[in-house]
Amino acid sequence: MKKILSFVLCAVIAFSVISGTVFTESPLDISIVSEAAEYNKTMLPYCYRKLTDEEKLAYLKLRTAFIECRDSVEIEIPTVTADKLSNILMYADVLTNFNYPVGDSAFEYYYYEETSMTSEVMFKYVYSKKDYDLIIKKSDKAAEKVISKFTDKTSDYEKIKIIHDYIIDKTVYYDNNANSSIYDALVNGSAKCDGYTHAFDYICTKAGIRSAVAYGYVKDRTDENEYHVWNKVYCNKKWYNVDVTWDDPESNLKENMTYKYFMVSDKVIGADHVQYDRGFYVPAAKSNDGDYYQKYGLYAKTLTEVKNIFADKIAEAVKDGKSSVTVRLSDNDLYNTVTKRFEDTDDLFDILKRASQKTGGRLVTDGYSYEGSDEGMYTYTIYFYYPKSKLSDYYIDIKQVDSDTISFLKDLGLKVE
């Protein structure tokens, strides 16, 4: 007996699927590989390589049909395999994951009840084939613009940082009820976490850098089923986490990019991120060697190191015209110590004076701002100011600056336009 099964996408539910596959019929025709040849094979999701040969052939056939926006495709595979491969199409594949309707039946199967084998898979889409092709064309152009910044001397780490920084500079976080795509992040300039993540994955993959997508939720959310998505990236033979969305804080400050979630281990990001199992392979990130703050000498284990690093790095930042420096602290005890010292002593004034001396007096030394983050990432940021500078040198929209901050900065000698 043949029945129909709807495969319903719900962004708040984690799917549990069986990963093993045994084909009772003969393998799919190898010709489907050439059928998909017009699409760039390097854009296949990383988990594709972890599929069995039979699953790879089936996935290429499903993917080709979905990219071509066909109504359906005839394919005989176990329904558990169809579930697994559909998950990859919806969650892991950067060329397909934005073109399914949220909250609706993205896929429907005809299947044989006696054998649990599908005979046909039907699709629904958000975009027509014409609109889909336009999205890919414009996204490709944006991605190539980033990749053109690379030279033969650009290391993979530097490439990853350039991609990370470009997306943050280009994109403003915008939450809505629809999927966000690579196009939203790279062309429209506004996206949710999935747009940020898929844009990062897209550019990395086109640049020859291994990347994968991780799904889960963030611990401080009231609803644990509210999903979040970020990246895993491979560099120097190790995997790391990168959360571009959370490195782009919503702020009126011009310098609002962070690297708290850049090239960190599962243990570090696990302080506030919980990863789901979506039924397909996602590599583990065991190393913290790529942590931006450690790599660039912005990591402290003692109070003395905190003060010395801030004094040195603020002086370096002044030479580049920057107005803030962030240091990552080793643990909660050091964070609490630094907090108490910054609140109860003149340590911050001393840091600024030392930095100013290194720059020939180019800093305002009698005023500053600072903020700490103890959300498992343990960072402190010091914001400093220049004589005769303007509010617009530090803020995107000075109309949003509160009156107390304006009065404080005016007292330091800053100009208010």
Reconstruct the topology from this structure.
Blueprint: E1 2-8, H1 31-35, H2 53-67, E2 72-74, H3 79-92, E3 105-112, E4 117-123, H4 129-147, H5 156-170, E5 172-173, H6 182-188, E6 190-191, H7 193-206, E7 211-218, E8 228-235, E9 238-242, E10 262-264, H8 266-269, E11 273-275, H9 292-295, E12 299-300, H10 303-319, E13 324-329, H11 332-344, H12 347-358, E14 369-373, E15 379-383, H13 403-411
Parallel strand pairs: 5-6, 12-13
Antiparallel strand pairs: 1-3, 2-4, 3-4, 7-8, 7-11, 8-9, 9-10, 13-15, 14-15
Helix pairs in contact: 2-3, 4-6, 4-7, 5-7, 6-7, 10-12
CATH-level-2 architecture of the largest domain: Roll
Task: Please give the share of residues in helix.
Answer: 25-40%
Low-confidence segments, ≥5 residues, pLDDT <50? Answer: 6-40
Rg, Å, rounded: 25 Å
What fraction of the residues are assigned to beta strands by DSSP?
15-25%
Q: Can you tell me the CATH class of the largest domain? A: Alpha Beta
Q: How many structural domains?
A: 3
Computed structural class: alpha+beta
Largest sheet: spatial strand order: 10-9-8-7-11
Give the SSE string: EHHEHEEHHEHEHEEEEHEHEHEHHEEH
- Overall pLDDT, averaged? 86
Q: Largest sheet at a glance?
A: 5 strands, antiparallel
Number of strands: 15
Number of helices: 13
The name of the CATH topology of the largest domain is C8orf32 fold
Distance between the termini: 76 Å
Task: Specify the overall morphology.
Answer: elongated
